[in-house]
Amino acid sequence: MNDMTQRGSPVHRRSKGSGRWEGVDCLPYKEDEKARFKAISRQVLFSDPALAAELRFFEVAPGGFSSLERHQHAHAVLVLHGRGQCLIGREVRHLQPHDLVTVPPWTWHQFRAGTEEPLGFLCMVNVDRDRPQLPSDEDLANLRADPSIAAFLRDP
Ligand code: MN
């Protein structure tokens, strides 16, 4: 093993194709009882003390979704592959490869894959960040009062 492949100093980690990389653990999220998220995996691609940001790659299986949450920190998202939808605040948007999504602080957000193919996206965050807040029943009712959001939040 040489310096280029040592896990501790990954200056170059090769793509293994289709959203996998050498030396990067793919961590499947467990599906929780309240179905806050479903069928999504997470990989930390860059987490370097020299940087104030982390870059993660999430892949949502067809029909899956990320947790509906909000927090003080922001996200910068780049869709790499697949199609789906996202909720950002009160906006529901269709996503396709190479779309860019900004999630501002304290904005409800969720990503959902379409039914045909996985949705893979990069997500940049601050290393130092607060824990996500999940919606209360009242928050959910407020969101669902909007028909387009209610349609978005329905389980497939
Ligand atoms: Mn988030």
Word description of this protein:
The chain is mainly β and 156 residues long. It has a single domain (19-152), classed as Jelly Rolls. The chain is 10% helix and 41% strand. The chain is built from two helices and eleven strands; from the N terminus they run βββββββββββαα. The chain has helices at residues 137-144, 147-153, and strands spanning 15-17, 20-21, 27-28, 38-47, 53-65, 75-81, 84-88, 91-95, 100-103, 109-113, 119-126. Strands 3-4-5-11-6-9 form a six-stranded antiparallel β-sheet, with no helix packed on it. It has a three-stranded antiparallel β-sheet with strand order 8-7-10, with helices on one face. The longest helix has 8 residues, at 137-144. The chain starts with 14 loop residues before the first strand and ends with a helix. The structure holds manganese (II) ion. Manganese (II) ion binds next to loops.
Write the layout of secondary structure elements.
Layout (H helix, E strand, L loop, with lengths): L14 E3 L2 E2 L5 E2 L9 E10 L5 E13 L9 E7 L2 E5 L2 E5 L4 E4 L5 E5 L5 E8 L10 H8 L2 H7 L3
Antiparallel strand pairs: 1-2, 3-4, 4-5, 5-11, 6-9, 6-11, 7-8, 7-10
Bound molecules: manganese (II) ion.
Manganese (II) ion binds next to loops.
